[in-house]
Every structure is written in C-alpha cells, then in structure tokens.
Specification:
This protein has 6 helices and 6 strands, in the order H-E-E-H-E-H-E-H-H-E-E-H. The protein has 169 residues and is α+β, with helices and mostly antiparallel strands.
Length: 169
C-alpha cells in the first residue's frame, strides 16, 4: 500500500500544483500516524515526521483526531493556526493547507493532505475534487493493503507446508 500512497501523491501534486503531499495512516491503536507517502520536503523532515502522535499540533493530526477536513486558505491563517508549520518551514514560506480524512465505512483510517508554496485560491470545485480523491485513495490503499496481507499469508502458508513436507521425509 506504500506504493499506492506514493502514486497518489506523485499524480496529485502536479495536478493540484501543490508543493507538499502527504498520505498518513493511523496506527492500529489510533494514537499515532505514519507517513506512508510524503513528497515535497527534504529527507530530514521526512525522517523527523515518519511517525508522530495524533496529538501533534499539525493539520494531519487534527484530521485524524476529529475525522473532519481541515482547510486553511492562506499563509497568515496557516501561521496562526499551526505555528509548528511556520517554525519548521518558516513563516514566510508556504501557503494553504488542506487535509481530508481517509474514511472506510465511516471510520478514519488516515489522512490525505496537500500544501501550497504560496496563497492560491481554493474554490469549491477544488475542495470537491480533493474530497473525491480522499475517498478513492482510502479505497485504493485499503485494497492494496488487503492484497499485500493475502500475499503474505499465502507465502507463510507455503513456507509452513514446505517445512511439514521436509519434516515428514
């Protein structure tokens, strides 16, 4: 599913003309997020934010906690609402931020988020597109996760069968 998350971000960034894209998935205990797709930031930032608490003061964590989308339309609003982003990226850099929950059967499983380099108008059509993208991304990531899980279980079963055959010889 990590490959699917990367494809989502790789395709969406140029389509949205966004600077940063993130796909973060909730841990099973729902206390932390892991960025499985994170593009547009340096390696140090990627490493620092590979896994983080849902209580972190960033939009992605807020969406994971509340299950509601976050739409920040300007740099000034971003700096005011999320001073940590301003501290990391600099208050003079970055603009709007949007983050949508990845929902499966009404349950938040993760977050899809994008940031722009400078203020851009976010129209209702843009937000509708992002909501649809989040809905489809949740389904695609879950399907890929299930396929990976089934392949892993099959490999384990084949390995066990091989050990049993070898033991009976």
């Amino acid at each position: 599913y990590v490959d699917v998350a990367s494809v989502i971000i790789d395709q969406a960034l140029p389509a949205l003309q966004a600077e940063v894209g993130v796909v973060a998935l909730l841990s099973e205990d729902r206390t932390s997020l892991r960025n499985v797709g994170f593009k547009g930031v340096d390696e140090r930032t990627q490493a620092a934010w590979e896994q983080y608490s849902i209580n972190s003061p960033v939009p992605v964590a807020e969406v994971a906690r509340t299950g509601r989308a976050v739409v920040v339309r300007t740099r000034a609003e971003r700096n005011e609402r999320y001073p940590m982003l301003a501290a990391v990226h600099g208050p003079e850099h970055g603009g709007p931020v949007v983050a949508f929950p990845l929902l499966l059967m009404g349950e938040t499983r993760g977050v899809l988020a994008f940031c722009w380099a400078s203020d851009v108008p976010l129209e209702n059509d843009d937000l509708t597109f992002l909501l649809t993208l989040a809905e489809q991304s949740a389904l695609a990531i879950e399907r890929a996760r299930l396929v990976e899980q089934a392949a892993s279980e099959l490999a384990e079963r084949k390995a066990s069968e091989k050990l049993l055959r070898e033991a009976s010889e």
